[in-house]
Amino acid sequence: MISGNDKPGQYGHRLLVLLLSPVLALLMMLVDPKITNALTLLGAGDFVSSTAPSAPGVVHSIGFLTPLSGHQIIPTDYIIITFANYSDVTPATSSVGWTGGTPIYSVLGNQVFITGVSAIQGSGITISGITTTNPPTGQSAIVKVEIADDSSGTTVYDSVNIAPIPANRNTTTSVTVISFSSSFEFYGYTSPNAFVTILLNGSVAGTTVADVNGNFYKLIAGLQGATLYNISVYAQDQSLRDTQSLTFQATSLNDMNLIFSNVTIPTTFDIAPRTFFQGDFLNLQGSAHPYSQVTLFIEGSNDHSFVVQTDEDGKWTYKMDTRIYKLNVGPHIAYAKEVVQGGYTSIFTQEEAFEVKSCRIADLNCDKHVDLTDFSILMYYWKKPNPANHRADVNADSKVDLVDFSLMMFYWTG
Question: What residue spans define the domains of the chain?
Answer without folding.
Answer: 34-166, 182-263, 270-357, 372-410
